[in-house]
Design brief:
mainly alpha, 90 residues, 5 helices
Protein backbone atom coordinates (compact mmCIF):
# COMPACT_ATOMS: atom_id res chain seq x y z
CA UNK A 1 0.00 0.00 0.00
CA UNK A 2 1.10 3.58 -0.66
CA UNK A 3 1.76 6.18 1.97
CA UNK A 4 -0.98 8.58 2.82
CA UNK A 5 -0.45 12.32 2.88
CA UNK A 6 -0.89 13.76 6.39
CA UNK A 7 -3.71 16.24 6.82
CA UNK A 8 -2.67 19.83 6.41
CA UNK A 9 -3.04 21.20 9.93
CA UNK A 10 -0.85 18.54 11.62
CA UNK A 11 1.68 18.89 8.80
CA UNK A 12 1.65 22.67 9.28
CA UNK A 13 2.24 22.28 13.02
CA UNK A 14 5.13 19.94 12.26
CA UNK A 15 6.60 22.54 9.89
CA UNK A 16 6.25 25.25 12.53
CA UNK A 17 7.85 22.96 15.10
CA UNK A 18 10.78 22.41 12.74
CA UNK A 19 11.63 26.11 13.18
CA UNK A 20 11.99 25.82 16.98
CA UNK A 21 15.81 26.02 16.98
CA UNK A 22 15.65 29.17 14.87
CA UNK A 23 13.09 30.65 17.26
CA UNK A 24 15.20 29.76 20.28
CA UNK A 25 18.13 31.72 18.78
CA UNK A 26 16.03 34.89 18.53
CA UNK A 27 15.85 37.60 21.17
CA UNK A 28 12.77 37.37 23.41
CA UNK A 29 11.00 40.28 21.68
CA UNK A 30 11.74 38.69 18.30
CA UNK A 31 10.36 35.36 19.54
CA UNK A 32 7.03 37.11 20.13
CA UNK A 33 7.07 38.39 16.54
CA UNK A 34 7.98 34.90 15.33
CA UNK A 35 4.98 33.44 17.19
CA UNK A 36 2.72 36.10 15.68
CA UNK A 37 3.92 35.18 12.19
CA UNK A 38 3.31 31.50 12.81
CA UNK A 39 -0.21 32.33 13.95
CA UNK A 40 -0.75 34.05 10.60
CA UNK A 41 0.00 30.70 8.96
CA UNK A 42 -2.53 29.01 11.24
CA UNK A 43 -5.16 31.63 10.34
CA UNK A 44 -4.72 30.75 6.67
CA UNK A 45 -4.58 26.98 7.17
CA UNK A 46 -7.88 26.40 5.35
CA UNK A 47 -6.55 28.13 2.25
CA UNK A 48 -3.28 26.21 2.56
CA UNK A 49 -5.07 22.89 2.67
CA UNK A 50 -6.84 23.71 -0.59
CA UNK A 51 -3.68 24.94 -2.30
CA UNK A 52 -2.06 21.50 -2.15
CA UNK A 53 1.45 22.95 -2.34
CA UNK A 54 4.15 20.38 -1.59
CA UNK A 55 6.30 22.80 0.43
CA UNK A 56 4.64 23.94 3.64
CA UNK A 57 7.11 26.78 4.01
CA UNK A 58 5.44 28.36 0.96
CA UNK A 59 2.24 28.51 2.96
CA UNK A 60 4.06 30.13 5.87
CA UNK A 61 5.61 32.83 3.73
CA UNK A 62 2.51 33.71 1.70
CA UNK A 63 0.47 33.88 4.92
CA UNK A 64 3.02 36.29 6.38
CA UNK A 65 2.89 38.41 3.24
CA UNK A 66 -0.92 38.52 3.17
CA UNK A 67 -1.21 39.58 6.80
CA UNK A 68 1.56 42.13 6.53
CA UNK A 69 -0.01 43.60 3.38
CA UNK A 70 -3.33 43.91 5.22
CA UNK A 71 -1.58 45.83 7.98
CA UNK A 72 0.25 48.07 5.50
CA UNK A 73 -3.05 48.90 3.80
CA UNK A 74 -4.66 49.65 7.17
CA UNK A 75 -1.80 51.95 8.13
CA UNK A 76 -1.89 53.72 4.77
CA UNK A 77 -5.63 54.25 5.19
CA UNK A 78 -5.07 55.64 8.68
CA UNK A 79 -2.33 57.98 7.39
CA UNK A 80 -4.71 59.23 4.70
CA UNK A 81 -7.41 59.86 7.32
CA UNK A 82 -4.97 61.79 9.50
CA UNK A 83 -3.75 63.84 6.53
CA UNK A 84 -7.35 64.75 5.70
CA UNK A 85 -7.96 65.70 9.32
CA UNK A 86 -4.89 67.97 9.31
CA UNK A 87 -5.98 69.60 6.02
CA UNK A 88 -9.39 70.31 7.52
CA UNK A 89 -7.83 72.17 10.44
CA UNK A 90 -5.67 74.43 8.27
Amino acid sequence: MGRTVPSFRPALEHEIESWKDFKRALRPEEQKVFDKLMNFARIHADAGSLAARPMLSEHLFISFAIEQEKRIELLLHRIHELEELIKGKE
